[in-house]
Design goal:
alpha+beta, five-stranded mixed sheet, eight-stranded mixed sheet, about 900 residues, Immunoglobulin-like, Zincin-like fold
């Protein structure tokens, strides 16, 4: 265990920096054993700091070997400064000066993948959040913004491509076989946006003409073997650039935009100014090796990082407590972009599913925190779904409250007012208030209060007065550090459904216009909303479009849910009604199992699915969505005590009985959606493949030779990875041991030279429901294709098993918990960021039955007792054990 607890950083303690860095000149000499970094910094006292006395200069720095330190050209004696493991302090400095610093670093040994490191044969950087301090001594905080000039020197034969931020202004060759390039970024930026890449890379090139007729060169750099997988990313980039101009009026501001694909990367991608560094999984795509989901992810991530050029780079965050300022806003923007590029309903349902299963669980766990956190020990632990996805939902609520046109005025004002500044979430909300005239004082609680609000809604219809009253109560549970919560401002969008569809609405409010949908402002702990002239007893369609990130309770009957499924015009509500119906049925089956009775699916659910399968007017993506039962993760999340084995058994029997009852309809859906047309990652084709493979997953429950033959045929003959992996996943979940092993071996032999496909191969096996999966995962950790230093491999095998295979991870003997703890202890020394993120399945130990709690807690205590825990892991484990 650590001798001392890591220091907690509090938002309330923020103070402006004592010094600012006007110009940053960096010179890198890249070597195979060591790299030399010479920094020349133009520093001055911050005029915003009121202090007459002497003020030492304290620079951040970690894992650096200081060689030379000069102040205004004079080398400093060691008595003039002090170095420790986290900082360099110079005791006496003038008001304005030039500081030169020569440091030695070893990127080849940097397994944390923060700062400057090597990915195979390539040098690359990851500086967000605090990685720059592993490159040179610096004021490594987002509110210190500087103009950068970077020179890179490296052996030309090994590293013919040398990239950094901004424009290439000069380059040349040296007599010793090295070459050099100087890059200059004209825009001020914080250190976390710095980037450097050096390697033997190929690229594709295209061009984009902006709305003001400027020509921008676009390049995507990859290893030569991957050059045929870049076209989709390039198309996505151009679509994102045009969309951002049309929707937000944001034009790209430099003459070149580069993307580089890196295999070893902790995150999905990074928005470094003009040089975006991407995980290969988020940029490489072609039909033979990439699934539909992979294509969509590339499109979304490329757009996300590009959109950051304004919402994150031109306007950045003042401190890391404001992280959602850039991430929540940009996730909202990329979600809207993806919705415009594909199916709006499918995108919305996908986002809500993630929020309900992962973010709601985070809100209910030991790491719960507001969208704008109050404190942290390690900022890397706060790159969470709360910051990103819930942050995006907060922005979406502002968008819905203001309307599209006013929201655009607000975003224009925000960018114009704060261009080139490091600002806060408050500055964003204030711009929206000033543009709209709307008071968002109460709404700000979404930024400061943690937890998922719960709405309890009841409805009463009075036939004589033709009046329908919705009563709404809101509450929010206790979260760490927040015992009580004040009411939120919750936009609740509703409609009323009659027997023939949506009814016209007339609220008892003279300012409300008649229509079929209305957004209610829920601002009190208890509130009534009265609808007049309601001609028949309605079924309320609530939280349309998922208008707020809340849990909503309304006691729907099966008949009411069926009406929503069959008549509602809101795609989210139709899907949600099917999820509620499925949840009710599975809960009933679980109750029957506890009583020792036979588990039987309610005919309502079967009839609902049959109706959907036969409805030829429905979008196929909508059919596929409705047919999918609530996930095990969601069922566990909404349970007071999550018995994963009980959930698994009831859900599996439910799926089996649905497959038996709808055998003919499912087979017909499978056959009707098979196609030999050339692959395209468009909404129509993706919907057909989704419905076909959803039908196949049910058909495989039938345990029939003919279905197994069809599945095998799809595996071996499909011309796209979506269909291949869908078939492989189904076969991997069967008890046909010989067929399963043969399918997995053949798949690997075919795709062993494609790392991203091999990652999928790992993930399919890690998620298998067969009982020996843990043993297989341990075997795969010894496989030549697995590398525990590669985050993609770790996520695909260890992460998927522990986070997405509940029935095998939660083995009754606790072996799954012990396995995860073993990996956390190893990764703590190699890559603390990845280690802390893998911990999540153990952190919610209080959610499970008593014996599981005991076994999970024991592994957390074992991790806590390990020597030299990183801040990343210590913070998560210590909070989980409280």
């Amino acid at each position: 265990m650590r001798d001392a607890q890591p220091k907690t950083i509090y938002a309330k303690d923020y103070r402006v920096p004592d010094y600012l860095i006007e110009k940053t000149d960096l010179h890198f000499t890249l070597g195979e054993d060591v790299t030399l970094v010479r920094s020349t910094l133009s520093i001055q006292r911050n005029s915003a700091v009121n202090s007459d006395g002497p003020c030492p200069l304290v620079l951040d720095g970690q894992e650096l070997s200081l060689k030379i330190l000069k102040l205004d050209g004079a080398e400093l004696d060691q008595s003039a400064y002090q170095v420790n493991q986290d900082s360099l302090t110079i005791h006496d400095v003038p008001e304005q000066f030039i500081l030169e610093c020569l440091t030695e670093i070893k990127p080849q040994e940097n397994t944390s993948l923060e700062g400057l490191y090597k990915s195979k044969t390539m040098f690359c950087t990851q500086c967000e959040a605090e990685g720059f301090r592993k490159i040179t001594y610096y004021l490594d905080r987002p509110d210190v913004m500087s103009v950068y000039r970077t020179t890179i020197v490296a052996e030309k034969s090994r590293y013919p491509v040398l990239l950094s931020n901004g424009n290439n202004i000069e380059q040349g060759d040296n007599d010793d076989g090295t070459h050099w390039v100087t890059w200059e970024d004209p825009f001020k930026k914080p250190a976390y946006l710095f980037a450097l890449v050096a390697g033997d890379l190929s690229h594709i090139e295209d061009h984009f003409t902006t709305m003001n007729q400027r020509e921008v060169t676009l390049r995507i750099y990859v290893e030569e073997k991957d050059i045929d997988k870049c076209d989709h990313a390039m198309t996505s980039l151009k679509h994102a650039m045009r969309w951002d101009e049309e929707v937000y009026g944001r034009e790209y501001d430099l003459d070149i935009f580069n993307i580089v694909a890196v295999d070893d990367f902790n995150m999905g991608a990074m928005e470094n100014k003009s040089l975006n560094i991407f995980n290969t999984s988020c940029v490489l795509a072609k039909p033979e090796t990439t699934t539909d989901m992979g294509f969509q992810r590339v499109e979304a991530v490329v757009a996300h990082e590009y959109f950051h050029n304004w919402s994150g780079n031109r306007v950045t965050c003042r401190d890391w407590f404001q992280l959602s300022l850039k991430e929540g806003f940009t996730v909202f923007r990329d979600a809207e972009f993806s919705a415009d590029m594909g199916s709006k309903t499918v995108k919305r349902v996908e986002d809500v599913s993630l929020l309900r299963t992962i973010q709601f669980a985070e809100d209910a766990g030991p790491m719960a925190h507001p969208v704008r956190p109050d404190a942290y020990m390690e900022i890397s632990n706060f790159y969470t779904v709360t910051i990103y996805e819930k942050g995006a939902e907060v922005v979406r609520m502002i968008y819905n409250l203001l309307g599209p046109e006013t929201f655009r005025k607000g975003s224009d004002l925000y960018f114009d007012r704060h261009d080139g500044q490091a600002v806060t979430c408050e500055d964003f909300v204030k711009a929206m208030e000033d543009a709209s005239g709307k008071d968002l004082t109460q709404f700000r609680r979404w930024y400061s209060q943690a937890g998922t609000p719960r709405l309890t809604v009841t409805g009463v219809y009075e036939a004589e007065s033709e009046r329908y009253t919705l009563s709404v109560k809101q509450s929010c549970p206790v979260t760490p550090g927040q015992e009580s919560k004040q009411p939120f401002h919750i936009p609740l969008t509703v409609a009323l459904l009659g027997e023939a569809g949506a009814l016209p609405l007339s609220l008892a409010d003279p300012e409300t216009e008649d229509n079929t949908e209305v957004m209610l402002d829920v601002t009190q702990a208890e509130q009534n909303f009265v609808f007049e002239q309601v001609k028949e007893a309605p079924v309320p369609s609530l939280l349309r479009g998922f208008s707020a990130p809340v849990k909503l309770d309304f006691e729907y009957t099966r008949e009411q849910l069926m009406r929503i499924i069959s008549l509602d015009s809101d795609g989210f509500c139709r899907w949600d009604a099917a999820q509620q119906l499925g949840t009710q049925v599975i809960h009933e089956m679980m109750d029957a199992g506890r009583r020792g009775e036979r588990l039987q699916v309610d005919e309502y659910l079967i009839e609902a699915y049959r109706t959907v399968l036969k409805d030829e007017t429905l979008d196929k993506s909508m059919v596929a969505l409705i047919l999918k039962l609530p996930s095990e993760a969601y069922l566990a999340e909404i349970a007071d005590e999550a018995n994963v084995h009980e959930i698994f058994a009831a859900r599996r029997i439910c799926r089996n009985q649905i497959a038996e009852a709808l055998r003919n309809e499912l087979i017909q859906a499978y056959k009707a959606n098979k196609s030999d047309e050339p692959y395209a990652a468009n909404a129509e084709q993706i919907a057909r493949r989704d419905l076909k493979n959803t039908a196949l997953s049910y058909m495989m429950m039938l345990d029939e030779d003919r279905v197994l033959f069809d599945c095998n045929e799809q595996l071996y003959n499909a011309k796209n990875m979506t269909d291949q992996l869908a078939a492989l996943r189904e076969i991997t979940n069967t008890n046909y041991g010989v067929i399963r092993r043969q399918a997995l071996d053949n798949f690997y032999q075919r795709w062993q030279d494609e790392p991203l496909v091999v990652n999928q191969w790992f993930a399919v096996q890690a998620s298998s429901i067969v009982t020996d999966t843990l043993d297989r995962v341990k075997e795969l950790m010894e496989h030549p294709a697995f590398d525990i230093k590669n985050p993609n491999k770790v996520r695909s095998l260890i992460g998927v098993f522990c986070g997405q295979n509940p029935t095998n991870f939660h083995r009754e003997d606790g072996a799954g918990y012990e396995f995860l703890a073993d990996q956390i202890i190893v990764l703590n020394d190699l890559n603390p960021q990845i280690a802390s993120r893998l911990l999540t399945p153990l952190t919610r130990w209080k959610k499970y039955p008593v014996e599981s709690q005991r076994l999970m807690k024991a592994q957390l205590e074992r991790i806590m007792a390990s020597p030299d825990l990183s801040k990343d892991v210590y913070e998560v484990v210590s909070k989980s054990l409280k």
